[in-house]
Amino acid sequence: MKRVFALLMFFCALTLGIAQSYAQDETTEEATTEQVAEETTSAAVTEISGDEVAQVEELSFTQAVKQKFIEGGWEFMGAVLLTLILGLAIAIERVITLSLSTTNTKKLLVKVEEALSNGGVETALDVTKATRGPVASIFTQGLMRASEGIEMVEKSVVAYGSVEMGKLERGLPWISLFIAMAPMLGFMGTVIGMIGAFDAIEAAGDISPSLVAGGIKVALLTTVAGLIVGVILQVFYNYCVSTIDGIVLEMEDASVSLIDILVKHKLSAN
């Protein structure tokens, strides 16, 4: 959760920086002749070290991103940025949860089998309760029904497996929602921006190529931002789905192995 909060703080700081830069007016000075421009450029290159050049390039990229954000309009660009922040927060929380849900199934099965052979079901329950993860939880539910027969163990494992799968998939519908919302917000901003561009053309009374191109460029920025956010969240979504599929497959395989161990233990006890 600390990583999630750190990420939220980072994006909030980025949003505040963009808002502050929105109120600033950037002024640019041009040299009167090409000779003056070349002299100032060569002097700056000789004085700036390698680290300073990297910092200048980084600042230039940051300023470019801020400029595009402002040009796209803070209303829709801010909404797209909000979907990115919320989507990433949920996605990172899911990634952390899924990483903590993985269990060394083979090692756990060996421990359960040894516990059943040495101390019985109660000792095996102590082993599974001390292990985290959905596989260990399913083992616990199955071992608690061991005295009622193998059929009850199978039913308990299947029923609780569905519960654990629901816990693993928690939050994924929200990520899917943000994946769909980001491009739609971008398209909405583009349509509204195009309407504003045509209104400007109508007010000017003349179809100027620079006016048309500028309006269309600004309108398409929201679409680009929405598509970028959708791609980023889609990568996290697919990773979560793939991880969940692997855990579910591991749960099913481990459940079959647990039932085999219980049958073997019961036969040996008889």
From TrEMBL:
Cellular component GO terms, alphabetical: plasma membrane
Stretches that traverse the bilayer: 76-96, 174-198, 218-237
Membrane topology: Multi-pass membrane protein
MotA/TolQ/ExbB proton channel domain: residues covered: 134-252
Residues making up the signal peptide according to the UniProt record: 1-23
Subcellular localization(s) per the UniProt record: Cell membrane; Membrane
GO aspect biological process, one term: protein import
Annotated keywords: Cell membrane, Membrane, Protein transport, Signal, Transmembrane, Transmembrane helix, Transport
Record-stated family: Belongs to the exbB/tolQ family.
Protein name as catalogued: MotA/TolQ/ExbB proton channel family protein
Upper taxonomic lineage: Bacteria, Pseudomonadati, Bacteroidota, Cytophagia, Cytophagales
